[in-house]
Amino acid sequence: MADTQNTNVQEQDIHQLLKVKREKLANLQQAGKDPFQITKYDVTHHSTDIKNNFEELEGKTVRIAGRVMSKRVMGKASFCNVQDLPGNIQVYVARDSIGEESYADFKKYDVGDIVGIEGEVFKTKTGEISVHASQVILLSKSLQILPEKFHGLTNTDIRYRQRYTDLIMNQDVKDTFVKRSRIISAIRRYLDGQGFLEVETPMLVSNAGGAAARPFETHYNALDEDVKLRISLELYLKRLIVGGMERVFEIGRVFRNEGLDTRHNPEFTLMELYQAYTDYYGMMDLTENMFRYVAQEVCGTTVIPYAEETIDLGKPFERLTMVDAVKKYAGVDFDQIPDTAAAKKLADEKGVHYEERHAKGDILNLFFEEFVEEHLIQPVFIMDHPVEISPLTKRKPDKPDYVERFELFIYGREMCNAYSELNDPIDQRERFKAQEAALAAGDEEANTTDEDFMNALEIGMPPTGGIGYGIDRLVMLLTNSPAIRDVLLFPTMKSLDK
């Protein structure tokens, strides 16, 4: 009963506070001081500009703008803390400096209001760099209540649903998304320097291929056709390689109708690039160099803290075949396994679950997932996957059961996936047939034949290296973020109505 009474009291208090905020706005509007009538405010500096250049700016007039995060009224003089994009700064507001009427208005402003401040840069007796206001203007009235500042916003569900509040209350969250933008900009700069062209390809497609995933489906009313949201960028980018665009990349959203966890969100940012006249070794070199470049540009170092580990992107990345990785960590040499029956027998002995349709190559991959992935902390290229799990990849000439493919693993997570692309249209058609057989056998993630893509391959695609990067996972690594939701501004959430 006591808890219920406390809750009711809190709700009444909040209701009263919200009512007071609206009354304050109404009074301002009646006095001809409606903040929502102000259309602009010329900002000359941000908080960190002032702090980083104090010696140059001391005694000079600046104009800043931001949200009031705290306020301390002391008779004829007050202090408030104003937060902008990069940080926050203290503002000293005195009645004698801004005038009696303006000071009376200022005393009624609330935490959460957005203000414009003009004043001189100075340092207080305690040594804090501040702005001595000569003018304070209310630019926007907050009609809601921010979380209590001392405890911050810690409820993760609210943080993800109300990212705008999260960004206000948690500076480190804002820093993560500023860094995300810088990471993507650095990737673009690097690829531009390597002669790549950035392109855009369709999101609504009739055939969602290029990856093993279940697509989202929708209906295109104008054409009265069922279409899918793309699960990959691959097949359209390869068409451009056929067309003679020798180096192309795209950064864009893809959509996979699958579960949510710390590493997966149904819509996420993928980058794929394709380069003619190179192979998967060329893609390894490009990836290693690009990861180093981006880390140095954004973090200022190639030694990155992540969780309890320190990831060294400066050292040469290890290269290990999938067979050798399984041999190293599971003690099983799949080169000595003669066929699928023997592989299934071994899986039964080791307690590795498989499906009846799985072949030897599928089971090798299951062993890799079960026994190897968690050990791959420092950067390592896992190479030469079985053909069964690589329908778009060129076979190894000396080992046709395997393909020229690699995945980069860091901290036990796949960071990218690359191939020497399959450019043999006859082999590709056979692989599509195998995929369609798998689909008929119940594999909902299998591909179907894309006839227009087949036509493009028959026109002729040069030897090509291709790769796909999970941008969100790279951002997780470089911002030391534990979950994909921490690097997505608006992650997928279950509706509150459900």
UniProtKB/TrEMBL annotation:
Mg(2+) 1 binds at residues 407, 414. Its main location: cytoplasm. It is found in: Cytoplasm. It catalyses: tRNA(Lys) + L-lysine + ATP = L-lysyl-tRNA(Lys) + AMP + diphosphate. One of its GO terms (molecular function) is magnesium ion binding. InterPro entries: Aa-tRNA-synt_II, aa-tRNA-synth_II, aa-tRNA-synth_II/BPL/LPL, Lys-tRNA-ligase_II, Lys-tRNA-ligase_II_N, Lys-tRNA-synth_II_C, NA-bd_OB-fold, NA-bd_OB_tRNA. One of its GO terms (cellular component) is cytosol. Residues 180-491 form the Aminoacyl-transfer RNA synthetases class-II family profile domain. One of its GO terms (biological process) is lysyl-tRNA aminoacylation. It is an enzyme of class 6 (ligase). Its cofactor is Mg(2+). Keywords: Aminoacyl-tRNA synthetase, ATP-binding, Cytoplasm, Ligase, Magnesium, Metal-binding, Nucleotide-binding, Protein biosynthesis. It comes from the Bacteria. Mg(2+) 2 binds at residue 414. The keyword Kinase does not apply. Its EC number is 6.1.1.6. Binds 3 Mg(2+) ions per subunit. Belongs to the class-II aminoacyl-tRNA synthetase family. HAMAP family: Lys_tRNA_synth_class2 (MF_00252). Homodimer. This is Lysine--tRNA ligase. It comes from Simiaoa sunii.
